[in-house]
Each structure stands twice: as structure tokens, then as C-alpha cells.
Amino acid sequence: MTDAFAWTPADASSWIAVPRSDDDKYSRGVLGMATGSDQYPGAAVLGVEAALHTGVGMLRYLGPDRAASYVLHRRPEAVTSEGRVQAWLLGSGIDPDHLDDVTEARFATAASSGLPVVLDAGALPLRERVQGAVVVTPHYRELAKATGRDASDIAADPARAARETAEQWGCVVLVKGHDTYVAAPGGLLLVASSGTPWLATAGTGDALGGVLGALVATHADELGEDAEREGGTGRLDTLARLAASAAVVHGLAARRASAGGPLTVLGLIDALPATIAGLLADRA
């Protein structure tokens, strides 16, 4: 087992952006999302819900029409037209072998933007084309498929798999699980253990993507400053800390929603604001 630094709620709380009195919807962060599909429109809804409950100034949902209709029905404040964004979340609820034309176009736009990008399962193959900083969020089976490694080997030592893949791919790697490991190229390795076994249910990964996308969008300026100051190395370490913070927030919200029993993903998402408020209160 590779040693990892335990990322705690106290650590995560310092990576939650709190709006100032002079902020507007743009300065608070704009997240672009190309997620969901005709087959899995619910993934888009869950990611949008999670991002909005975590806190962004604006969310642009730019997925296929069927998924967009579900998103707007649930969240009319979501914007479905192109425009300025500060980070991207791509891939949740998408089969990479059967991309529709809309999704392919959005993937290409995001990859060439130079902005930080969160890649969930269906967008993992895009990582080589992305010009900005990348964090990928596979579970062990998805990582096995993408790397050609044996899934049981990854499950036995996800920390090592995260670290080795981060070095190989040159991006931040978050391996989802009861203990979530986050590695950045260069050696930073974090572990978030705030979750509950009740999280092992469909859709929770889509929610994690939304939480992480929101945290990245609200720290876009800081990520840009790190890139200029440290040539990209500092940016990836910052991205890793944001990813670990998202895992902590996600896990704590799951515990709040579960209260020791089963949970639904929408219940987890509903618990996000109170979870974040609690972290901020402890920080204060």
C-alpha cells in the first residue's frame, strides 16, 4: 500500500470559495457541462443539481436535447446557450464509443479551451487532447479499462494505481471508492475517507463530478495564477487538493443524508448546502 496524506474536513473547508459582497455570477465561477445522453439523461440532472448545490455563479449545460430538457425542467436557472465558462465537466452518463454530434462538438470545444477540465467516465479518452489542466475521476473498473490493468490489482491498491496513472498520464487522477485516492504528477497523494458504504449506489459518481466541477470553477482564477507562477506543476497540485476536497464534501453529505441507513443521490445533493455550511462554520 502506498502512503497517502489523509485529507480531512478541516483541509477541505479551506478550499470552499465563499462569495464576497462585490461578487457577481461571473466572478463566482461559471461551470460548463457536457454530460448525459439520450440513454442516460439522469446523469446530467444529477451533475447539474450537485454543482448548483455546491455553489457556482452560473451553470451552462451544453448536452443533447433530451438531457437538456430534463435539466431545465428540474433547474430552470441552468443556461443552455454557449458563452463564457471558467471550467468544464465532461463525460458523466456518456458512452465514449457512441458519441452524438452535439457531445463530440462540446468535447472538442472544451479540450481546446485551455481551461481546467474534469473528465468523468465517458470522457476519459479525451484526456490526451485537453490543452488545460485535467482531473479524471474513474472508479477502479473504469481505470482498469482505460489503462489495460487488471481491475483486481487496482482494487487491491488504488493508491498505487492513482499515483502511477497520474505520472503516466500527466494529470490528476481521482480513484473513487470507500477511500478515495487523489494523485498528482510529482508525488502528491491524498486520501479522503469521509464517506459511508451506503454511497455504493448508482448516480453518486455523477454527483461527485458536479461537486468537483463547482469547486474547480470557483477556483479558476487561482488555478490560472498557479499555472503562470509554477509552469503548471502548482496548478495540478491545487487541482488535486480541490478533487480531494470534493470527495470529502461528497462523503460528508452522504453521511448526513444517510443518517446510518440507505440514501438516494438527490438526498445526498439536498444535504450539500448544510454540509458546506457546517464546514465553513468550523473554519470560522
Structure summary:
The protein has 284 residues and is of the alpha/beta class.
What would the keywords be for this entry?
284 residues, alpha/beta, nine-stranded mixed β-sheet, 9 strands, 48% helix, globular
What would you say this structure looks like, in words?
The chain has 284 residues and is α/β, with parallel strands linked by helices. The chain has a single domain, classed as 3-Layer(aba) Sandwich (UDP-N-acetylmuramoyl-L-alanine:D-glutamate ligase), CATH 3.40.1190. It is built from twelve helices and nine strands. The chain has helices at 9-13, 41-54, 65-74, 101-112, 140-147, 151-156, 158-169, 204-218, 220-230, 233-258, 265-270, 272-283, and strands at residues 5-6, 30-34, 58-61, 87-90, 117-119, 134-136, 172-175, 180-183, 189-192. Strands 1-9-8-7-6-5-4-2-3 form a nine-stranded mixed β-sheet, with helices on both faces. A hairpin with a 4-residue loop joins β7 (172-175) and β8 (180-183). α2 packs across α3, α8 packs across α10 and α10 crosses α12. The longest helix has 26 residues, at 233-258. It is globular, with a radius of gyration of 17 Å. The mean pLDDT is 95.
